[in-house]
Amino acid sequence: MDAEKLEKQERVKKFLDGLTTEQALFVSENIEDLYLLADCREEMEGEKPKEKSVFAICMEIYNNFIVEKIGVKAKIDGTQGSALKKIIAYLKTIDKIKTDEDVITAFEFVLVNYDAWDNFYKQQTKLNQINSNFQNILNNIRNGVKKTNKSDREKRVDAVDELQRRAIEILEGNKE
Questions:
Q1: What is the pLDDT of residue 130?
Q2: Which has the closest alpha carbon to 57: 97, 105, 94?
Q3: Is pLDDT at 89 greater than 70 in this prediction?
Q4: pLDDT for residue 38 is more than 70
Q5: pLDDT tens column, 94-137
Q6: How far apart, in whole angstroms, are the C-alpha atoms of residue 176 and residue 170?
Q7: What average pLDDT score do residues 48-62 get?
Q8: What is the rounded distance in angstroms from the CA atom of residue 118 to the CA atom of residue 20?
Q9: 21-30, 125-134, 145-154: which has the minimum mean pLDDT?
Q10: Among positive and negative, which fits the CA dihedral 20, 22, 28, 30?
């Protein structure tokens, strides 16, 4: 026997080890099919599991973010999936982001820095909302949230507080 035939027989023996006698007899009616099955089984055993896509990893990061913030899984539909794809596409346009790993890291960075987001954006946690506000959120993270001027009401409250403080000081005799 030549070496190729011996090799095929060894592969068939390995294959048959996993079968009952009845299964082996059924399969061995056509030995060429058996060789083919053995080849397929070896290929399947040698396959590596597929790596998760950037989209899948970012979606997992987003879902964990939502669970952390509100205690339930994110509600994902076509709109949310499309928004995540747009965020990923946008991140890929940034010069400093060169690899898929960089995209994942940048996306996670934005969510991890949630506390740096403006209060308005903190209420906008759906992916389509994050996508719409993405540049503003990045600006908040990079430059901080700008303090807005006090409203007229807040100014009046401060003035009343100051008057009360002065009145108390005068009544206590600390100032005249």
A1: 97
A2: 105
A3: yes
A4: no
A5: 999 999 999 999 999 999 999 999 999 999 999 999 999 999 99
A6: 6
A7: 87
A8: 66
A9: 21-30
A10: negative
Q: Which whole number is the average pLDDT over 25-34?
A: 54
**Token pair of 67, please?**
């669970």
Residue 92: what are its φ and ψ, rounded to 5°?
-70, -15
Q: What is the DSSP string of the chain?
A: --HHHHHHHHHHHHHHHTS-HHHHHHHTTSHHHHHHHHHHHHHHHHPPPPPPPHHHHHHHHHHHHHHHHHSS-----HHHHHHHHHHHHHHHTSTT--SHHHHHHHHHHHHHTGGGS-HHHHT--SHHHHHHTHHHHHHHHHH-PPPPPPPHHHHHHHHHHHHHHHHHHHHHTS--
The values of phi and psi at residue 97, to 5°, are -95, 110
Query: What is the pLDDT averaged over residues 136-140?
Result: 93
Positive or negative, the CA dihedral 39, 42, 44, 46 is negative
| Cβ pair 21, 68 in contact under 8 A | no
For residues 141-174, b (16+ Cβ closer than 10 Å) or e, as one string? beeeeeeeeeeeeeeeeeeeeeeeeeeeeeeeee
